[in-house]
Give the backbone structure.
Amino acid sequence: MDEFAFRRGVHYGAILVDIESRQPVDVLPDRTSETLAPWLHDHPRVEVVCRDRASAVKETAPQAIKPYLQAEFAAGNTVATELYQQIRERGFRGGYSTLSRYVGTLLDGTAVPAPAAPIPAPRKITGWIMRPRENLPPRETHALE
C-alpha cells in the first residue's frame, strides 16, 4: 500500500499493489482506515499488508479480526493463546501483545463492538445463489447462510 496525490496538498488516495507480481490491485479514493477496512474484509485472500508510511494499515489490521474474536469470545473462548493461534491460522500476522490487549478489553467489557459486516452487492449474492454450493469457497458459503 502506498499513498499518492490526486491533487497535491489537497486530496490523497491509496494504491494497493501485489508485491509478488508487482501489479496494481486497486486504487482507493482516500487513505483512511474507514475505506481500507471494508476493502480488506471484501478481499479475505490478502495475507500480508506492506505499507509505506500509511497509518490506515496500522489502525485497520486489528479491525479485520475483531468480528471473529468477538464471536469466539461470545461462544466462551476467552483464552488469548488459543485465540491467537486461531487468528494466525486465518492469516493474522500481528503480534500476540496486540491480541492480548484486545482480549483484555473484551474481558473487562470496554471493547468497542466490531462494525457490522457490509452487505454484499446484489450481483455478488446472485453469483452465490446461482453457483452450486460445493463450488463456493467456505467464506462465501458462510456469508450466504
Notes: The radius of gyration is 17 Å.
